[in-house]
Amino acid sequence: MTKVEVDTPHGPARAELHCAEEGRAALLLGHGAGGGISAPDLVAVTRAATAADVHVALVEQPYRVAGRRAPAPAKQLDAAWLAVAEDLGERWFADLPLIFGGRSSGARVACRTAEAGEASAVLCLAFPLHPPGKPEKSRLAELDGVESPVLVVQGERDSFGQPEPSHNREVVLVPGDHSLKADTDSVFRAAQEWLGRILRLVE
Q1: E-strand spans in 76-126?
Q2: What is the rounded distance in angstroms from the CA atom of residue 111 to the CA atom of residue 84?
Q3: 3-state helix, strand, coil in the chain (%, to 5)
Q4: Domains along the chain?
Q5: Helix (H, G, I), strand (E, B) or coil at 141
Q6: What is the SS3 assignment for 30?
Q7: Which single residue of 56, 61, 84, 185 has CA 20 to 30 Å from 109?
Q8: Taking the CA of residue 13 as centre, how many other CA atoms within 13 Å lie in the half-sphere pointing to its CB?
Q9: Cβ(175)–Cβ(41) under 8 Å?
Q10: What is the pLDDT of residues 128-141, one digit of tens each?
Q11: CA angle 22, 23, 27 (to 5 degrees)
């Protein structure tokens, strides 16, 4: 495991790199709004990816690196994420397909930046389809805007809603709520199985 700092337009971000034996692609994972990169579902997906020969970068947004808990505005999150993706793509993951991903807020960032960052696929953990109890404030457009293959791993009791599958989007429901802590083995299996198929498409 290696930690690197990356300059972004909104301050330094940090990436924790977990390298696979044979890197066939690289997966960049972002954290939730108030959480960090040690969230159980992010740890499970990191294990699944490295087992599938995919390098992983767990990305800490500049506001977290600076010690703040309140997230930055969406445009700042997206700009910082793209700066990290560009830097890591050149310095560490040259010539490898990049897969964007993250949990909750990080999943939204991955979706919004997938096209600009030329992501080959997107992996969403606990995508917050709408604020709890407010289905009218849907964020489905962020998911629908991704043209590359998408996996959404969602808790069966997630109060932030349940996205529906579509032509390029798979949705896997696992036991638990928005935290995805209840059954990390199911999260691991869903990510590993999907990554195995995605690698055959993007290589």
Answers
A1: 98-103, 121-125
A2: 15
A3: 35, 25, 40
A4: 2-202 (3.40.50.1820)
A5: helix
A6: strand
A7: 185
A8: 33
A9: no
A10: 999 999 999 999 99
A11: 145
